[in-house]
Amino acid sequence: MGKAIRSILVSQPKPDNKKSPFFGLGDKHSVKIDFRSFIHVEGVGVKEFRDQKVNFSEFTAVILTSRKAVDHFFRMCEKTRYSVPDSMKYFCVSEAVALYLQKHVVYRKRKIFHGRQRFVELMELIKKHKNEKFLLPSSDILKDVIPSQLNDANINYKRAILYRTVVSDLSDLEDVFYDCLVFYSPAGIDSLFKNFPEFKQNDTRIAVFGESTKKAAVKAGLDINIAAPAPNAPSMTGAIEAYIKEHN
Asked: N or C: the chain end with fewer CB closer than 10 Å?
């Protein structure tokens, strides 16, 4: 039998929503749950943007894969004094991202299209507008599936790196120990070892979400104790709860 889990550190910002399943998990099983972002995003400067030879006025449509992409697209438009025309078309990966556009534009007056959640669904809409010239604002880290699907469909697009994923300073956690660390991205694993090069897993349980995170953890020499999604636990909290029920 593995040791009981009494404390968990989730490598993400603390949720604003009190309905987060993590809060319920902590209360139900008397487990202390803390949140700490292992990575954060920083916008690129105007000079670095100009070095990419991207001219906003050449594009008729924008592909937006996250809220951060929305914010940094409009941030760079402001910095470069580019006024986005009303005719610009917005292709958003989900309805949540589409609605977030209201922060920057008058929603009902714009041509906005959105998928359900996955990029492959958005591609069906993009293919119907093949004559557009698309801009893809992104982070320095971009899922391979996005450019590969755009290339396979011969879409006329250009990527602009407008923000970067940066390792957060976790030095204040050096002498703090948790029974379980929860990771959602390879960048989170990378941050752990950049902050603590001498990290030894010992009895710390490692929980990972997604195949790419799992691969990064194994590559870093970590033993994975909890993995999601799984057939019996599609969510991270569900997978952790299943482990707690067995071991606590």
From this structure: N
